[in-house]
Amino acid sequence: MTGAPAAPVFYLIPGLGADERVFQCWELAGEVHILKWLPPQSATEPLGPYAARLAAAVPVAQACWLVGVSFGGLLALEIAQLRPRARVVLVSSLAGPHELPWTLRAARATGLDRLLPPVLLQKLPWAAKWAFGVKTKGEYALLRQIIADTDPAFAQWAIGQLLRWRGVPGRGPAARLHGTHDRLLPPPATGIDCLVPGAGHFLVVSHAAQISHFLNQLADNSR
Fold it and tell me: Record's InterPro entries (predicted)?
């Protein structure tokens, strides 16, 4: 006789500057770990070596799900290159640099990201509210807390890595979730498995129940 299938293992990677607070309403049926951001070793540390350091928390032989949110999706794809049994799920993220919206491509081309300090966002919370598509007081309060707690040096590094990311060869994501009204990283025309009507970039918080259901079903169907 064979035993019951092992419970799924999830490694969750939050977005730029965010932490476990964005996952507080997720309800996943399995073992859950949250990968916490590490300080970059330098202002120019490439994403690949950074991902290798982050991957140290994921056992090489472990079958698992890497769920990356926004900038965390890039790290999920990079880590999957080093963890052959890991499958990636992208939430409000990019599958490759070709999906960068024209606004961010312009920022990359002009070097605008190096001229505008990330602390500017802390002083303009209403702009962040619009960009992230936040609709409730609770979501706005959480977003303001996360922005206030974000290390400006880390944010500057991460934004630069996002804009200049070259993507990863071969393996793509197992599944993707995205909001139809994402202003920061608009969804591509194809390739999205769960397109959430009306959701913005704060999908990770605003539609926690829907994301949880999708991930649980995805993991269950893969056992």
Answer: AB_hydrolase_1 (IPR000073), AB_hydrolase_fold (IPR029058)
Q: How far is CA 111 from CA 77, 116, 127, 203, in A?
A: 25, 9, 21, 28
As given in the structure block, the two tokens for residue 112 are 């605008």
Report the phi/psi class of residue 93: left, alpha or beta, with left for phi > 0 and alpha for psi in -120 to 50: beta
Of the candidates 204, 185, 158, 209, the one whose C-alpha atom is nearest the C-alpha of residue 14 is 204
pLDDT of residue 87: 97
User: Rounded to whole angstroms, how far apart are CA atoms 196 and 199?
Assistant: 6
User: Based on the number of CB atoms within 10 Å of its own CB, is 139 exposed (0-12), middle (13-18) or buried (19 or more)?
Assistant: middle
Query: Phi then psi for 103, rounded to 5 degrees?
Result: -65, -45
Q: Which residues contact 105 (CB under 8 A, 6 or more apart)?
A: none
**CB distance 30 to 10 below 8 Å:** yes
pLDDT, tens digit (0-9, with 9 covering 90-100), for 78-126: 999 999 999 999 999 999 999 999 888 887 777 766 655 555 566 667 7
Nearest to 137 by CA among 185, 69, 205: 205
Report which of 157, 186, 184, 173 is spatially closest to residue 218, judged by C-alpha positions.
173
Question: In the CATH scheme, what is the code of domain 9-221?
Answer: 3.40.50.1820
Tokens of 134: 């936040």
Integer Cα distance of 173 and 77 in angstroms: 7
Terminal Cα distance for the chain, rounded: 17
